[in-house]
Automatic annotation (TrEMBL):
SMART domains the record matches: CRAL_TRIO_N, SEC14
PROSITE patterns: CRAL_TRIO
Cross-referenced InterPro entries: CRAL-TRIO_dom, CRAL-TRIO_dom_sf, CRAL/TRIO_N_dom, CRAL/TRIO_N_dom_sf
Region listing for Disordered, in residue ranges: 281-310
Name of the protein in its database record: CRAL-TRIO domain-containing protein
CRAL-TRIO domain location: 93-257
CDD domains assigned to the protein according to its UniProt record, in alphabetical order: SEC14
Source organism, top-level taxon: Eukaryota
Pfam families for this protein: CRAL_TRIO
Length: 310
C-alpha cells in the first residue's frame, strides 16, 4: 500500500485528465522507479513513495521520462552546490533572507485544482549584502518543502508573480548569462514541476535586458507563458484574481508579513530535512557512460537539449 496523501476529488480528476494518472497503477510504477534507482550506482536519491510519485506526475506517468527527470534532478542539483548545499535554516544569512520574504508562496489558489502562486520580490534584499545565489538557495528550500507537501503544486503546477518594485541596476547586474542559464535549466529541466504562467509587474528600465536573457534559454512553450504588466495591476488581476493576493497588493490573503512569518516557522521546522538532504545527489565517477559536470551541463558555449515541459 502506497504511503501518499489522498487527493481531493478536484485534484484527482486533474491528475487523471492532464497527467494520465491511473491510481490502480501507481504502486507498480513507484516500485519500478525504486527498483531502477537500485541499479543506478551514481544516484543517491530519496525513495519515499510521495517523492517518487511527484516525478511520475511530473512526467505524465511515463516511467522512462520519470527516470530521466529524476536523474536530471539530482545531476543538476549536484552541479549547483552554490544553490543547493549548506541550507541550514539557522544560518545567519539564510535566516535574514527568510525574514525579508524575497519570495513567498501565497496561501490560496483560485480553485481547489488551480496552480500554486508564488510572489517574488527581489527588491526586498540588498544586493550589496546578498548574492542572487543566496536568494535562489533560500527559494530552493521553499520549493523543496512545497514539493513534499503541496499537491496543487505537484499536479496543477505553479504561477509566479515577479514584482520588480525597488529593484536597482545592482540587482540586474547579478543576473549574468552563466547564472541565468543555470537557473533556467534548473527550474525547467531539473524539476518535476510545471510552469503555468509567469507575470512581471512594476518593471523598471533595464528590465528588458534580463527578461530577454531568460527568454533566450527557455522553451517556446514556457516563453509563451510569460506576461509583462508593467504597473497595470488591473491587467494582472485578469489572470490572477485580486482576492488571492496579499493586502499590500489589493488582495484578501492577509498582510504579507503574516505570510512570511508562517513560512519562516515552517522552514525552521524542516531543519533536520535540509541537513539530511546534503547526502543526496549524483556521484559522476560512478555514472555508467560519460560523466556530467557543470561545464557540460551549463557551458555557455554550445547548447544543451531543451525538454518540452508542460
Amino acid at each position: 500500500m502506497l504511503d501518499i496523501r489522498p487527493l481531493s476529488p478536484e485534484l484527482a480528476q486533474k491528475a487523471r485528465e492532464e497527467l494520465n494518472e491511473v491510481p490502480e497503477r501507481l504502486e507498480e510504477d513507484v516500485a519500478a522507479l525504486r527498483a531502477w534507482l537500485t541499479k543506478c550506482p551514481h544516484i543517491k536519491s530519496r525513495t519515499d513513495d510521495q517523492f517518487l510519485v511527484m516525478f511520475l506526475r511530473g512526467a505524465k506517468h511515463s516511467l522512462e521520462r520519470a527516470k530521466q527527470k529524476l536523474d536530471l534532478y539530482y545531476t543538476i542539483r549536484t552541479a549547483l552546490p552554490e544553490l543547493i548545499r549548506n541550507r541550514d535554516p539557522l544560518n545567519e544569512k539564510l535566516a535574514a533572507l527568510m525574514r525579508m520574504g524575497s519570495a513567498i508562496p501565497l496561501p490560496y489558489t483560485d480553485t481547489p485544482s488551480s496552480p500554486r502562486i508564488f510572489l517574488i520580490r527581489p527588491g526586498a534584499y540588498d544586493p550589496a549584502k546578498y548574492s542572487i545565489q543566496d536568494v535562489f538557495k533560500f527559494n530552493s528550500m521553499m520549493g523543496d518543502i512545497m514539493m513534499k507537501e503541496d499537491d496543487n503544486l505537484g499536479i496543477a503546477g505553479q504561477m509566479g508573480i515577479l514584482d520588480l518594485s525597488n529593484t536597482t541596476m545592482a540587482h540586474f547586474l547579478q543576473f549574468n548569462p552563466t547564472f541565468v542559464k543555470k537557473a533556467t535549466m534548473w527550474s525547467q529541466e531539473g524539476s518535476p514541476l510545471r510552469l503555468k504562467g509567469f507575470h512581471y509587474i512594476n518593471t523598471p528600465s533595464g528590465f528588458e535586458t534580463v527578461y530577454n536573457l531568460f527568454k533566450s534559454f527557455m522553451t517556446e512553450k514556457n516563453r509563451s507563458r510569460l506576461m509583462v504588466h508593467g504597473s497595470n495591476m488591473e491587467s494582472l488581476y485578469q489572470h490572477i484574481p485580486k482576492r488571492l493576493l496579499p493586502t499590500e497588493y489589493g488582495g484578501e490573503a492577509g498582510p504579507l508579513q503574516d505570510i512570511i512569518d508562517k513560512w519562516v516557522e515552517k522552514i525552521e521546522s524542516y531543519r533536520d530535512f535540509f541537513l539530511e538532504d546534503e547526502q543526496y545527489g549524483t556521484d559522476e565517477k560512478k555514472r555508467p557512460g560519460r560523466p556530467k559536470n557543470a561545464e557540460s551541463l551549463f557551458g555557455i558555449e554550445g547548447s544543451f537539449r531543451k525538454l518540452e515541459v508542460d
